[in-house]
Structure formats: structure tokens, C-alpha cells
Amino acid sequence: MSRFDFDWVDAFTDRAFGGNGCAVVHQGAGLSDETCMRFVRETSLMECTFTGPSDTADIRVRYFLASREIPFAGHPTIATVAALRARGLITGDKLILETGAGIVPVHIDGDQIEMTQVAPEIGVEVPTDIVVNAIGLNVSDIVGQPQMVSTGLPFCVTLLRDRAALERAVLNIDAFRSMTDFLGYDGTDMMEPFMVTLGGATDKGDTYSRLLLAPPSPAEDPFTGSATGAMAAYLWHHGLMDKDSFIAEQGHGMGRPGQARVTRVGPREAMTGIRVSGQGFVLMEGQVNMPEDAA
């Protein structure tokens, strides 16, 4: 057994029990996939990160769900940087992370942690009838063509008519799996439909979103930074967002309100990156004993 320092951080919030939680295991990047996944399941969190040394960046970060490793995730990036900063493991206002999706630059400005997600990949359009079956809504509830978009992790971005439709959505697991089969994904390289409506949950927000999840993950993600980047790219690509920088909100319906500022890098017709920034609140810190098994 080996002992690792860890921090439990609520990301995209400035207070306890808001936003989205993530446990950051320091110097745990060498643990096996199975150990990392079992740790995530033990926490009942959506995702956890495991850091380690890097030959190409300042720090290597591995991202795990309860079921698999994924190349990148937004709220765990905010949580990881907040944890490193709270422990005094980083100094200055700039940091370069090595992730499975590539190099992710991070800028720290006061309490705000800003990550620059990779240039968006605007993917295939997804038939509306397939998406409505997956999220339990009517065709009339969708007002924008669903489309695959990635800024490090692919999501089916789906623009809904209003908040009422957003709140009615329920994930149909079988229909979602049929959707992944139709798109040619194996279920490990894409995420569930990311639903968004224009207009925030509060008067400060410009968008409000939800992400419903398939087992063994929790039923809903309180705040999704990687999907927020993909959603913003979708809105700018289709001319649906006039602002170059806006406030995205998520999690309010779960009692875990979260907020991020999203900023476009480059012109809307040739985006070179998406900046997503937010705060992180260190809720718990301690040590964990885990098997010392190299990945």
C-alpha cells in the first residue's frame, strides 16, 4: 500500500457544496486504471484526477470516470489547479498541463482559474429524432440542429427551446446507447447529450445547461467544463451568441449552482481555442491509502 495526499474541491463555485466536486490525488498518475476507477466509485463523484510529473508540461493530469479514463474534463481541471495552488505546489500565474487531449494552458488571475481548451472540432449533425428519444423530449423542444462538438471531449450539443424543456429531460439509457451505435462510437469516446438553453438560471447568466449521465456515473453532472467549451463553440459557430465572452450556468436545479466565464479565442469562423474560467473551493484535504500498482 502507498499513501497519497488528496484534496476534494468544489469547482466552478466560491463556496462549499456548490458547483461540481472532484477529488485530486497528488502524484497518483502512476496508479493502474482499475485502482483509479475504484477510487472514483468510492467517492461517488463524477470524476477524479491523478497528477504526476510530465516531460512535456509542468504537470501531467489523468482524468477518470467510474467506468473509464477520459482524455480531458473541465471541472476537474479547475479543481486540480485549485488544489495545487492551495498546497503551494505551484507559483505564479501560468501553468501548462499535459492531458490526454493535448497541452492545456492555464492562467490564474486572483481567484479565477482559466483553462484554454483546444481548438473546437465541429462534428457531424445528429438526427433530431434520435436525440429526443435519448433525452425523453419532443421534436418541438429542440430549436437548434444537434451536433457533435469537441474541445477535448466530444458532446452532442443540443439547443432547447426553454428552461421548462430542459427541466423535463430524462435520459433513456437504451435510446442513448442506440444513439452511440448510430454515430459509430463505442460508448467510451463520447459523452451524453449536453442540453442548453439561451438565458441563464439567474440574471447574471447567458446560458443554462444540463448533462444527464448513464450508470455507473451519478445521474446528473452539476457542472461540466469540457461540455461548456463545446457548447460555446456550437453557439458561436452557428451565430447564436453575439457576445465574445459570456456567463454559463449549470447545476442550479440540483441545488449545486455553478458558473463559468467562456471566452472565444479567434474569430467565430476560425476558432483556435475556447477559454473557460471559474473558481475552486477546497472542501476537504487528507490522505488516502491505495495499492501501489504502476499503470
Specify the CATH homologous superfamily of the largest domain. Diaminopimelate Epimerase, Chain A, domain 1
If helices are DSSP runs of H or I spanning 4 or more residues, what is the number of helices? 6
The whole-number mean of residue pLDDT values reads 94
* CATH level 1 name of the largest domain: Alpha Beta
CATH topology of the largest domain: Diaminopimelate Epimerase, Chain A, domain 1
Description:
There is one protein chain. By secondary structure, the chain is of the alpha+beta class. It has 2 domains: 2-111 and 280-290, Diaminopimelate Epimerase, Chain A, domain 1, CATH 3.10.310.10; 121-277, Diaminopimelate Epimerase, Chain A, domain 1. 21% of the residues lie in helices and 37% in strands. It is built from 6 helices and 18 strands. It has an 18-stranded mixed β-sheet that branches.
State the gist of this model.
The protein is α+β, with helices and mostly antiparallel strands. It has helices at residues 33-43, 74-86, 128-135, 163-168, 173-183, 225-237, and strands at 2-11, 20-25, 47-52, 59-64, 69-70, 94-99, 102-109, 112-117, 121-125, 147-150, 154-159, 194-198, 207-212, 220-221, 245-250, 258-265, 273-278, 280-290.
